[in-house]
Design goal:
This protein is an alpha+beta fold. It has helices spanning 2-15, 29-38; strands at 45-50, 53-58, 63-69, 71-72, 80-85, 96-101.
Length: 107
């Protein structure tokens, strides 16, 4: 179990969203179009930050998974790693929850 948690944490660190690749301040159509146009990945959904939470949009810009995560990565092979809570790796175990969601947003 510890190995799985460490692997999940490593994936979040390596693949986690940064302000450059998944950030929308205003949620305007221009911001969404810029992100969708810039992404060169093959997955259907893209991470997007609205306010302080991450969610996922499809390539048309429609919100598919509502913003509810404190950290999120890109989808890969149909799964994306997410975190809820204090997502820094020095936090206590009970202060954050890590997992993977599918394209419908199910953990």
């Amino acid at each position: 179990m510890l190995r799985f948690a460490l692997l999940a944490a490593l994936i979040v660190v390596i693949c986690g969203c940064s302000k450059e690749n998944a950030f929308v301040d205003t949620g305007s159509q221009e911001d969404v179009a810029r992100i969708v146009g810039r992404e060169q990945i093959y997955e259907k959904l893209l991470p997007i930050k609205v306010g302080v939470k991450y969610g996922f949009i499809d390539r048309s810009g429609k919100m598919v998974v509502n913003p509810q995560f404190d950290e999120a990565s890109h989808f890969s092979l149909g799964l994306a790693s997410v975190c809820i809570g204090k997502c820094d790796y020095s936090s206590k175990k009970d202060e954050s929850k890590y997992g993977y969601i599918d394209e419908s947003g199910r953990l």
